Model the fold of this input.
Amino acid sequence: MNILNLRRTALLSGAAVATVLSAPTWALAQGPGTVEELVVTGSRVSEASVAIGTDQATATVAITREALLSAPAGVTGLKMLESLPGFNVQANDALGMYEFGNSVSVRAFNFQQIGFLLDNIPMGRSDQFGGSPIYRYVDNENLLRVTASAGSGDVSLPSYASLGPIVSYLTQVPDEEFGGVVSQSLGSDNLRRTFARIDLGEHGGLSGYVSGSWIKGDLWRGPGDIERTHYEAKLRYEVGEGAITFQTVHNDYFDFDSPSITKAQYAGTAGDIFGRSGRSFAYLGYVPVLPVTAAGITYSNTAYNQYYKQAINSRQDHLYGLTYDTPIGESLKLTVGAYYESKEGYGVSPEAYATSLTNYHAERLIVPGLFAPLGLQYGLSTVDGTRQGATGKLTWSIANHDISGGVWVENDDYHRTQQRYNQVGGSPDGAPLLSQPVHLQRNYVSTRDTVEFFLKDTIGLLDDRLKIDLGFKSLSVDYNIAGYRNPADFIARRQPSVSKTWEDNFLPQVGAVLDVNGRDQIFASYSENMALPRGADDIFSAASPLAPGPEAETSKNWEIGYRANRPTFNASIVAYKTTFENRLQSFASVVPGSTTTETFFQNVGGVEAHGAEFSGQWKPEFLGGKVYFNTNLSYNIAEFQDNFATFAIAGKRVPDFPEWLWTGGVTLEPVEGAVINISARHISSRFTNFVNSEKTDGYTIYNAYVDLGDGFGAGPFEQIKARVNIDNILDEDYLGTVNTTTNTPASFRPGPRRTIQFTISAEF
Done:
């Protein structure tokens, strides 16, 4: 991948999506008033117009379309970020398909503090329950690029989740010519994936495409499988000099879970009664015979909850978007959009007989229609809801100013239930008896009404060599939760309605970028952000209605950086400091205004991170332009600033934030039509709890791909290509995703073993 003028970027990580154009590439000055694009070329080289960093006042990186298409087919929109500098992405499987196995951290923030957008449609919450995580909404084949700002996303981008970081996914414009592409992938663990897309061509200003992908494979760890059916479509109609675009996404997903395990379980020292250990530690594919622990109840033993059919997830998501983009005269440009999303799904988790019996007795005299437990309980959680919103933006170019302002409004309604039911015979393999509830846990509706305004002025000085950004946004989120939030609400016969508003009318962002000589740029920025508290529904479900709601988390982000661009080499380095306040933590204390002690979420202090990120690309002349190298290196120190309750954690490292992240790769073009890439990704050790009493070792993963067929066509096919991706070449055995704790041993998801995928595609 060459960041310089890339038409394709090499994968820094074969498992996730390719390499990143992390170093900026912009036009080089030839002389006064004249510029030209860099002449460096290659099969993984991208055009200067999409080079990240060009005239940006913040550290911004991108993954090009060509890099996306070099990744394993079906890699998710989240896992593709793992090659970006500073992004610590962990996934349960090579494609990142298993939703509850994914995690991301960058600088001082985690997955739920990052904003995600698809064609300027905000994705809202990233929660797997009821949220809109980005990996449900995109197929790589339809993406034009992915742009990420690790510290300060542009003030114009709508999000109530971001404390600074923003990742924006941009899909392709429909092709003006009729055509299409079909691809078939086969891989490890019985992976089968088919992708097909048809472009309708342009007819009287109307163009469009429709695509579908179908994927199925076995879990690499334990019994069960993953299935996903995904459709996307886009229509574009040119109206004068503007255009109206309609797009839609439909995603149907089903999978079986795999368990998180402790280090003791991993090492085989936990005394597991089934003899499980190591990275293959999984749920059982059979119903075991276990001692009875309650007289007359065959399946009363708690260990029956290890049967795999008791842990499943299913989601259906539908998104519709409409955008109108048009110039108004010579100096104004208007963009307005609207979107609607609906979702539904369910999850299943088991509950042991003893636990169900206790909860049944707590509710049976209060809640009518309950049944005594027969054995292991079928725990069913359902979700459904709608999300709808609109955005508007007006840009005015006058003299040396580009002034823009806009608004975003959204309503998010979410319904969740959680109940426990009997199964035939109380058996973990018995059919669920949904007419026999044992006890009730949740049945509530939560709403979020959001209004955001922004205003920004980009001022060009020194013949546009110096650009200054001055902007701010105001954000207001009205939240309400009503209904049965927890078992205590059922027992108390109450359906409380709890509300909270978080708002800040002035969140500034300032920045500057100086083009020194056409080859070098210096940039700096400062921004302030506020975000909806992570996991708001869990926060307001944890205690009685008397417990106060927390204040919103806030952040401040500073960056300063330098970019250099040379005919065979470019590089970017940024130093940063990031703080966020009002960090949330659940612990027991007296509810204000009462003498009652409860466990509820409270604002307990802050986190501070500082560090540096380097990106570089080199295509040495002495190798004849057949070889180029890329690398990213990130150094990050993230620390708690305050103690809470009885835990002295001030100065301790934030868990799951590695100090060092490194990715690097080499791309070879030995002959025309062939590309070979070998890459590596290293993550240093990470603490796993707040008190830093446990850590997990660092690891290094090696990946590779071979791409054949560039420029080869036959018969009706303009392009026929074959690609082989190998992830984790050396079969590294490591612990990846961390479920962090306060002061106890954490649980982990082992990283996936070596996987191989073969893809053949044809365009017509």
